[in-house]
Amino acid sequence: FDLTGDDKLLDKAIKIRVKAFESSPAYLRYACLHAIGCTHRARFSIRRFKGDLDNAIEAHRKALALLVPAHPDRWKSLMFLGLALDADSWNADRRTEAMDCFRQALDQCGNDNVLYQSYLLSEIASSLVSGPRCTTDDCDNAIDMLAQAVSLNSSAQRSIIWNRMGSTYRLRFLQSHDPEDLHQSIRCFKEEAELLPPDHPRCGGNLSG
Asked: What's the whole-model pTM score?
């Protein structure tokens, strides 16, 4: 099933995956729970129904519980649980737990997984500055993490990291009123724009704003 497609297909996917989980042998239960969690989160991104997000979090928690601490894929399970928790942007406790999941996943993913390291650093940084009580220190730490994340990622997907770094510099400028922060924010958005096609909705929007 294409998890970015028609939400009616996601309805069907959830029913099939729940049924598969109910009849699955023990060695397939993790994969079934992981698939259920991902599909609920995909449907939440379309319908914004909080029940889907709660179900996604529950499924990913159960999947994680099936993996022993030394399991080589445990960091991925932590990452997906973190993504589901982080999507609950109105719940400070869940955002805090999401950041803890991301940090644990980063510690466990290994030095060979540089793209995932980049992704996790970016997610942690985003979580640091997403709350209403974001401080200048939070911005400083987020910028350091994003700089490390972009250095690890040579793909075009690093555009989102430049976007987050530009937004974080802009947020720090609003707190510090330091013109250098504004200059750095513009530099980051220019770096982002160079990686995006001209008709991309983010292309130029931040620079004009």
From this structure: 0.87
Angle (nearest 5°) at CA 153 between 89 and 144? 60
From CA 144, how far away is CA 148, in angstroms rounded? 6
CA–CA separation, 24 and 46 (whole Å): 28
130: number of CA atoms within 13 Å, CB side? 20
In whole angstroms, what is the distance from residue 59 CA to residue 68 CA?
17
Q: What one-letter code names the amino acid at 100?
A: D
Residue 111 pLDDT level (bands cut at 50, 70, 90)? confident
For 202, the token pair is: 């983010």
Under a CB-based contact definition with an 8 Å cutoff, are residues 171 and 134 in contact?
yes
**The two three-digit tokens of residue 25, written as one number:** 């042998």
Give me the helix-helix angle, 114-128 and 92-108, nearest 10°.
Answer: 160
